[in-house]
Amino acid sequence: MPYIQFDGPVLSKEKKAELVEEFTKVSREVLNMPEQAFTVIIRENESDNVGVGGKLLSELHK
Amino acid sequence: MPYIQFDGPVLSKEKKAELVEEFTKVSREVLNMPEQAFTVIIRENESDNVGVGGKLLSELHK
Amino acid sequence: MPYIQFDGPVLSKEKKAELVEEFTKVSREVLNMPEQAFTVIIRENESDNVGVGGKLLSELHK
Amino acid sequence: MPYIQFDGPVLSKEKKAELVEEFTKVSREVLNMPEQAFTVIIRENESDNVGVGGKLLSELHK
Amino acid sequence: MPYIQFDGPVLSKEKKAELVEEFTKVSREVLNMPEQAFTVIIRENESDNVGVGGKLLSELHK
Amino acid sequence: MPYIQFDGPVLSKEKKAELVEEFTKVSREVLNMPEQAFTVIIRENESDNVGVGGKLLSELHK
C-alpha cells in the first residue's frame, strides 16, 4: 500500500526511473516491507503551474 | 463535498464516464447523499511516470 | 497501481469496507485488471475542515 | 511548508498567476507567515476527466 | 468542481473558516464562477509529519 | 518546490525522520537542487482506512 507522490518539474525518463528506484529502496528499508508493496507516482508540473512566495516559477526563473 | 480522485493509466472517454457514473452511484448509496454532492477527478498517468516495486511501469510492460 | 482516494466525512468501519469493496469491483470491471492491483484510501474530514460555497460545513449544518 | 493545491479547469497564465498571488496573500495574512513559506500548485483538468453528479463535465456542458 | 486543498499546520476553527471564505472569494472572482462550485479541504499536519530541507519541523522548531 | 507525499501506515517519529531525511537526500541528488527546496509530508493511515484488492487492511491483517 505505501504510496509516494512526487510533485516536481518536468523530468527525463532516466531521472524518473532513478527517483522511483531510490524512493522504493528507502521505503523498503525504513518500513521493512517488500518492494512490491510500494507505488510511486511522479507528477510533472510546468513552471506556469507552480507558485512560490506568490510568484509563478516561470516568472521567477526568467 | 465528497471528492473521489482516481489515479490510473490513460483511459478512453467512455471508460472515464463509466468510472464517474459508477463511483458516484456507489458513494450515493453508501453515504445516502444526493448525487450532486459528489465530484470525481480522473488523473491519467503515463507508464513512464508510475513505479511499482522500484521499476517504471513502462519498463515492466516492455 | 490504480489508486483511489475518497475524501469525505467521518464514516463507520462498515461503510469504509463497503466503499473499498465497491470501488474495487467497479474499477476491476471497467479497467479489466485484477483486484489486487487496486488500492483505496479513505480520508475522513471533520466538518470544521471542509468548506463549500465559502462556509465551513460545521457552520452550514448547525 | 504550507502547500495549496488548486484542482480546476484549464486556465490562462494570467489567471494562474492571479490565483497564486491571491492564495499566497490570504495564507500569509491568516497564518502570519512569510510569503516564501507558501507553495501553490495549479492542476488543470480537461472536462472529460471530471465528473459531478455522476456525469462528465464535457457531457454536462455540451 | 474547483477543489482547493490546503496542507498546513494545526489551526483554530476561526482561521480555518477565514481560509475557506477567502480562498472561495478569490477563486470566484478569478474564475467568474458561483461560490457554490468551490470546495476547500484543510489538512492539518503535526510537526512530526512534515519535513523541510531534510529535517522534521518538530526538530527545526525546538 | 518539489513536494513529496508519503501515504502509509502509522509510524514512529524516528521512522518519519528517516523517511524525510532519505527522500530529501535522494531528491537533492537526482534533481541537483538545494535541500531547502524539498518538502515532505507523511500521511499516516489507520488500517481501517486503507483497502487493497477490495478488502480493508484491518481485515486482511487479522
From TrEMBL, chains A, B, C, D, E, F:
Gene3D superfamilies: Macrophage Migration Inhibitory Factor. It comes from Peribacillus saganii. It is an enzyme of class 5 (isomerase). This is Tautomerase. InterPro entries: 4-OT, 4-OT-like_dom, Tautomerase/MIF_sf. Residues 2-58 form the 4-oxalocrotonate tautomerase-like domain. The keyword Isomerase applies. The keyword Lyase does not apply. Keywords: Isomerase. Its EC number is 5.3.2.-. GO terms for molecular function: isomerase activity. Belongs to the 4-oxalocrotonate tautomerase family. It holds the Pfam family Tautomerase. It comes from the Bacteria.
